Amino acid sequence: MLESARAQYGLPALAAISIRGNQVVERGAAGLRAVGSAAEVGVDDHWHIGSLTKAMTATLAGILVERGEITWDVRIAEVLPELVGSMRPAYEDVTLRELLSHTGGLPTDVTQAPSWPTLRSAPGPLLDRRLAFVDDLLTLPPAGSRGSYAYSNAGYIIAGAMLERRTNRLWEDLLREEVLTPLGMSATGFGAPGTAGATPDQPRGHVRQGTAWVPIAPGPNADNPDVLGPAGTVNTTLDDYAKYMMAHLAGARGEDGLVKATTFATLHAPVSGSGYALGWGVTTRSWARGTVLQHAGSNTLWYAVVWIAPERNLAMFAATNAAGDAGAQGTDRAIQILLQRFEAVFP
Questions:
Q1: pLDDT tens-digit profile of 59-84?
Q2: Are the C-beta atoms of residues 262 and 275 closer than 8 Å to each other?
Q3: DSSP code string of 107-175
Q4: Rounded to whole angstroms, how far apart are CA atoms 311 and 127?
Q5: What is the pTM of this model?
Q6: Neighbours of 196 (CB within 10 A)
Q7: Please, are residues 292 and 303 in contact by the beta-carbon 8 Å criterion?
Q8: What is the reported pLDDT for 28?
Q9: Is 226 exposed, middle or buried (0-12, 13-18, 19+ CB in 10 A)?
Q10: Within the chain, which residues score under 70 in pLDDT?
Q11: How high is the pLDDT of residue 144?
């Protein structure tokens, strides 16, 4: 069925997994790791999940809030006081909660930052380069009024830098130590998966050239610059992401886990009536019999989507190594397939 959906939307490959509670219901993968190669994808391959990373950053924040290392309502100026003076005054009082809910009025297009063209070639430790980019972002004009929803990668990059400052640890290390390792997500990493080579050892992201998909080998051009990490540079496997979905599904059903149930409730609660919580879109669906948590992500070379339905004790994830409308439509079709098959067994 995944192969049929992959072919319908002309995608290089398509993968999907569904869970019920803490059990995998089914998983599958179909297609090629790279167009022009004979290497087929498998169920243990890695997929770039783009902005699905945001919920991981928010979860990390929740862990640090519980530990007392930071608060939801701490202001940018409190955590990064050396940037006061260079940042626009409108940003000084923006809080971590507002950054994570896209309600801080932050810029929505990070490519407008003066340093964007040189981000991939800038020297120095990642911790320093991320802070320098944050400094740059905070000079840009607001995208909207504070308190209103405006989706912003900039907000998550700034939030990640705040977590780094309060812990004196790199966001990548923090996420690995505080989220990935406790959940047993040992196969999850950062950036484009795999290594460059004639025969792809992992799926490649693809760019559309005319009517053809062209694979991009792992390297600087295969993902966004690494300073964007907290906003969307994670890659993972079906089984690893299933562990992450299990944690949030249980939390949404009122169970303690990686964080307390009360913290999960904060992560999953929409802010300012926007329909967006902390790293999760929140809406309702009839098939879910209530609330669903959802998000999509893309670095323009991949596309991924997640749906969590607490009332059905169900979560689903789908990913493809291409993007654009085809990526969105193909992964949506994969989710439909998972849901139909789930409902046939668990009406």
A1: 999 999 999 999 999 999 999 999 99
A2: no
A3: -S-GGGSTTGGGGGG--S-HHHHHHHHHHHHTTSPPSS-TTS----HHHHHHHHHHHHHHHTS-HHHHH
A4: 41
A5: 0.97
A6: 12
A7: no
A8: 98
A9: middle
A10: none
A11: 87
